[in-house]
Amino acid sequence: MYTGMFALATGLMALRFLPALPSPGWLLVMLMAALLILAMRLWPVGLFVLGLTWACAQGQRALDDRLPVALDGRTLWVEGRVIGLPQQTETSVRFELQGARSRHGALPATIRLSWYGGLPVNSGEHWRLAVTLKRPKGLLNPQSFDYQAWLLAQRIGATGVVKEGQLLAAASHAWRDGLRQRLLHIDGNGRESWLAALVMGDGSGLNRDDWTLLQATGTVHLLVISGQHIGLFAGLIYGLVALLARYGLWPGYLPWLPWACGLAFAGATGYGMLAGFEVPVQRACVMLGLVLIWRLRFRHLGVWLPFLLALNAVLIVEPLASLMPGFWLSFSAVAVLIYTFSGRLGAWDWRGVWLRPHGLIALGLFPMLWILGLPISLTGPLANLIAVPWISLLVLPTALLGTLMLPVPWLGESLLWLSGGLLDLLINGLALLADVVTPWLPAVVPIYIWLLSALGALILLLPAGVALRPLGWPLVLLAVFTPREHIPHGEVEVLQLDVGQGLAIVLRTRNHTLLYDAGPKVRDFDQGERVVVPVLRSLGVGELDVMLLSHADSDHAGGALAVQRSMNVARVLGGDVSGLPKQLRAQPCANGESWVWDGVRFSLWQWPGASDSNQKSCVLQVQARDERLLLTGDIDAHAERALLRSPLAVPTRWLQSPHHGSKTSSSMAFLKALVPERVLVSRGHGNNFGHPHPQVMSRYQALGVQVWDSAEQGAVWFRLGASGKVQSMAGQRRFWRDG
Fold this sequence. Notes:
It is found in: Cell membrane. The structure is a single chain. By secondary structure, this protein is of the alpha/beta class. It folds into five domains: 63 residues, no CATH class; 100 residues, CATH 2.40.50.140; 254 residues, no CATH class; 33 residues, no CATH class; 246 residues, Metallo-beta-lactamase, Chain A (4-Layer Sandwich). Helix content is 43%, strand content 16%. It has 25 helices and 24 strands. The radius of gyration is 28 Å and the shape is globular.
């Protein structure tokens, strides 16, 4: 039984790693093969193929529900109903529209929309909206959040921006949104949004600093409703019934054990519905139901059977759950606890039960966090040592009881006020702890090193006294003392990040790192914080020797402050210093300055006659052996003509397309003088500026220049001075990135 269930789960999870999905014809062949293999009683193989077939069919179904290519980028009038909990901020509202209709053609079942400066939107309302729709798309960078995979896992077939709209019908049956609004408007000691997150799993009210605090202390799971909350609530109900029965207060004609199990499961399911029934809650409810059945009837089944049943149940209902990082972390945490607590001889005392799980989970989850590219909180075990009992025994019971008692005048609000005060004390304590040590993001390593380190973690989780246990430490420490890939002398590694409509390029020699531009900041989206810093840390970069900001426009310099806050920057250079934040302490770009790092020459140029910020762009030439790269910022044709009279006007193999491929740049005279073979274009998919302009692309094509476009290829990297192969994130194929 165990082998078959494990094989079925493996087949369902294999969807996550497929570069492409089989055609409908092949799916039919796979289904017939699975049934034939099962008929031959080869259960593990047959169940694996059956699980893979089901997962692929659901994946294709989700892909087929995406916005048609013909409607990509068009503005349409659509009608539909708002579902879920809209995320309200001071400047915008984000929500999902279901059952959207348009006279221009069929639309996906679910659309995710943003409305900047728009009207308030509530769950359950029917709206008529003018929306600019786009097919699902996300930034593609190494070790970064895959937004496109997340959209597919949520079965969201399109995104869009609302231009205007009108309410057609008020909300109906939107009890979750109504309850959330009630929680947000009570007096919760200033922690109303935190209470809404704890009670309903709605984190939209938490700001960026709040999430940073939770991530830094490894306590995100305490505010995002998880199995811990479900199990605790069910345990409180079960314990209450058992206590009443013990003291003779439970009705004698009702058998207490079945009622305790039934009420506990009903309460947990109700709490799960309140929280939106996400994957961790689904897993918790399934496992809780199996444990309660085990408590009633089947005590001999062991601990791994409920785990495997829950794993398969979640994946059968939604195979795309395997695309979500939360799925892997949720089930991994439970597996670590089962692995460490089951099969032990003797029992731990209360100190061991309280202290050990936090360290064990931190150790067991670190390989999964590492491979998913998520930061690892070094203060997490200590923070959870305090936060888990505080939330479980004090905050959560008063918050749930207060929510339940809201219809009773003053009682419910008083309990929520108390819960908010307790939560405020905890948050202030976590803030002090977060200032001690910042989260750690291990560098990207070859898969065999990760496997060795993960094996070391499993060995260390073995019971004390096992002979192999000491061997786990040197394997785990491979994550800390990772053998770095040494860049040869005279070469430079170039990485153009995918930051949307902006620019950020990382240049690394053997012992030095330079960042050319830091990505854009638009409203609350800071790509310096979201993309540039995580990628630098994943590369093992702890500090920057130079951060060169070509000019002051926000699409080039917007992320600079976030980079400077996150790591030491020895020197900041700027092409338009007067327009940069004073906190950067930027030095002006010195025309003609050059230096050599590890056999690689870097040279600066700026047009003295520049009249605007774009023309003031600080141009950087990089020469490694016989190859050159020219980074041009946003210079236009006038600045290009001036550059042709400078020492940088020499044949250049690599060129960063000036001004993202704008019509006013990349003049034919400029291209013929530099004779580039390859061009880097950094721009946002479907941007409003029309970059790169068709005329510019025609010039590149006429000269036989190969174009590497971040909107199509994602991040691009190569070795200058090695004439090596160019690689891109698009080259790492995943089935959800097709089309």
